[in-house]
């Protein structure tokens, strides 16, 4: 009560009212949340003369703002709850992660008699995407058109259709997502993808661990696919093809004691059903080996541990927009067993594990590292396994310049040759054609000097630039014919155009990349134009 007493004394002697206390101070005072006001702002601020013009007024009229009820349901607090600074910060992160908001601020606006009124300020993004686009990477040209809406009628529902033409290979995609089903924390997702080589459907219905203090989760998911799988020689030529049909379903439930002393532990159990069928295709070359058909019915257990430690920064992977980096320790492990008594073709252990951590050093230098492994063990020599690891290092040189280092490595052992690891084009080493190298091992080092300008044309786009250098290799006996890596390198520069008001977080890349000491069959440069979600 010291802060309250101090305020009353100041008022009694006629001094100015001090600034409102922070949520940390309010929590220490034992304050209770009173009124919650929702200020759901439109895309453009018409009170700002720079944004008050005919085009932006039209955009605001055409756009349906996020409904206050949607924002209110997404919050992790209600009137009458005790103030928690952690809950306020996590609520901001959840609102921001929705995609259809480019700013979310929660602040106290009045404090009286131990009760604090709270204001939630949100700014919408433009959520309608006509899906018209063009990209070029690694010598391949891709065009796209469609229509997507990430915040249908302001409800948070996402729906969209997209058609991609990649050198004559047409892919159509339909997606639907509902993040707050029937006003609850339930989520529903559905997607259908069809192309000349594949048909795939996916769905999920779940109540996830939506917050660090969530106590339970449950859900069901599944997918079905029918795809044409190609195997390649060392010079990237198709040497065999076969069809893979797969039906998968999973159901799970989880529980937790919630957030305790900055840590959350979660426990889950469930069961998977996985039926895979492989067939040669008449008229197409048959590879030397085709996987055997297999059914797996696998009960599983899972354990997660998460540390509550996040950093809110700007000018790292995007331009002049807030970014949340998870710096706390996070790990999970999942183990399942396919038993013949349940209908499995043969006994098999399945496993996945992942670990990540971040460190904030002096001068806001930041290291984020992650590693994961997944696989299936049947007791023989045909174990399927994939290991991946990586590290990112951000070194700010100023508010508008960052030096970035990235290191990544993958090791695969999988009888499905379609999981071969590749390098080239947009998949690392942009100075080389797409998938120029293949193998069951891959390593890549990336260096970038990033610049984030203050230029804000039309108050729609933020501009940046980068100079980059890459070294990497993909190798392995089965894919490349060599057990030793053939290291490749390139250098280049590029322009970054960040769509500030778009819900899709699009960063357009225009890159010019030059291979270093390439073979004679490699062009002396590559031009890449593509849309990504980060710098």
Distance from first to last alpha carbon: 47 Å
Structural class: mainly beta
**Tally of contiguous helical segments:** 6
User: CATH superfamily name of the largest domain?
Assistant: membrane protein fhac: a member of the omp85/tpsb transporter family
Rg result: 26 Å
Strand content range? over 45%
Give an account of the 3D structure.
This protein has helices at residues 2-12, 23-29, 54-62, 68-74, 85-97, 477-480, and strands spanning 32-41, 101-112, 115-124, 128-129, 133-137, 140-149, 158-166, 169-181, 186-195, 198-207, 216-232, 238-260, 263-280, 294-307, 310-313, 323-326, 330-338, 348-360, 366-377, 384-398, 401-413, 421-423, 437-439, 441-452, 461-475, 488-499, 507-515, 526-532. It has 535 residues and is mostly beta strands. The protein folds into three domains: 2-124, membrane protein fhac (Ubiquitin-like (UB roll)), CATH 3.10.20; 157-259 and 270-299; 309-535, Beta Barrel (Porin). It has a 21-stranded antiparallel beta sheet that branches. The longest helix has 13 residues, at 85-97. Mean pLDDT is 90; it is low at 1-6 and 8-14.
């Amino acid at each position: 009560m010291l802060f309250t007493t101090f305020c009353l004394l100041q008022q009694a002697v006629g001094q100015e009212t001090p600034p409102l206390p922070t949520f940390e101070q309010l929590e220490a005072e034992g304050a209770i949340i009173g009124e919650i006001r929702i200020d759901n702002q439109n895309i453009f601020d018409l009170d700002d003369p720079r944004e008050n013009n005919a085009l932006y007024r039209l955009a605001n009229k055409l756009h349906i703002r996020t409904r206050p009820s949607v924002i209110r349901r997404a919050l992790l607090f209600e009137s009458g709850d005790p103030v928690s600074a952690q809950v306020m910060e996590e609520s901001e992160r959840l609102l921001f992660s929705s995609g259809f908001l480019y700013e979310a601020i929660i602040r106290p606006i009045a404090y009286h008699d131990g009760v604090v009124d709270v204001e939630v300020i949100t700014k919408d993004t433009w959520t309608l995407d006509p899906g018209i686009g063009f990209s070029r990477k690694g010598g391949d040209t891709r065009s796209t058109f469609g229509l997507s809406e990430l915040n249908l009628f302001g409800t948070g529902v996402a729906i969209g259709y997209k058609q991609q033409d990649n050198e004559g290979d047409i892919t159509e995609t339909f997606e639907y997502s509902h993040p707050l089903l029937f006003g609850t924390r339930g989520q529903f997702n559905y997607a259908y993808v069809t192309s000349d080589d594949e048909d795939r459907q996916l769905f999920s219905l779940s109540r996830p661990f939506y917050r660090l203090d969530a106590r339970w989760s449950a859900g069901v998911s599944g997918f079905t696919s029918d795809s044409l799988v190609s195997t390649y020689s060392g010079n990237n030529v198709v040497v065999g093809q076969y069809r893979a049909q797969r039906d998968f379903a999973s159901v799970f439930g989880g529980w937790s004691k919630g957030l305790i002393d900055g840590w959350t532990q979660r426990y889950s159990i469930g069961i998977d059903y996985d039926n895979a069928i492989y067939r040669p295709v008449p008229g197409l070359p048959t590879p030397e080996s085709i996987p055997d058909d297999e059914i797996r019915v696998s009960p599983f257990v899972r354990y997660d541990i998460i540390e509550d430690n996040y950093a809110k920064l700007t000018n790292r992977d995007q331009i002049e927009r807030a970014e949340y980096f998870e710096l706390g320790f996070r790990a999970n492990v999942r183990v399942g067993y396919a038993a013949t008594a349940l209908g499995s073709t043969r006994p098999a252990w399945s496993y996945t594990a992942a670990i990540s951590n971040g460190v904030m050093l002096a001068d806001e230098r930041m290291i984020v590292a992650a590693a994961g492994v997944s696989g299936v063990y049947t007791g023989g020599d045909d174990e399927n396994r994939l290991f991946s690891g990586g590290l990112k290092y951000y070194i700010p040189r100023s508010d508008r310049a960052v030096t970035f280092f990235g290191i990544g490595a993958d090791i695969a052992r999988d009888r499905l040759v379609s999981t071969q690891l590749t390098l080239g084009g947009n998949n690392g080493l942009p100075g080389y054609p797409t998938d120029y190298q293949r193998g069951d091992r891959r390593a890549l080092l990336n260096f970038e000097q990033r610049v984030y300008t203050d230029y804000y044309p039309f108050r729609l786009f933020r501009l940046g630039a980068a100079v980059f250098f890459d070294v990497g290799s993909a190798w392995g006996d089965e894919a490349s014919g060599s057990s030793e890596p053939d290291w490749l390198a390139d250098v280049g520069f590029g322009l970054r155009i960040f769509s500030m008001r778009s819900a899709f977080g699009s960063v357009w890349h225009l890159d010019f990349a030059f291979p270093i000491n390439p073979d004679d069959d490699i062009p002396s440069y590559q031009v890449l134009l593509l849309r990504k979600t980060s710098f």
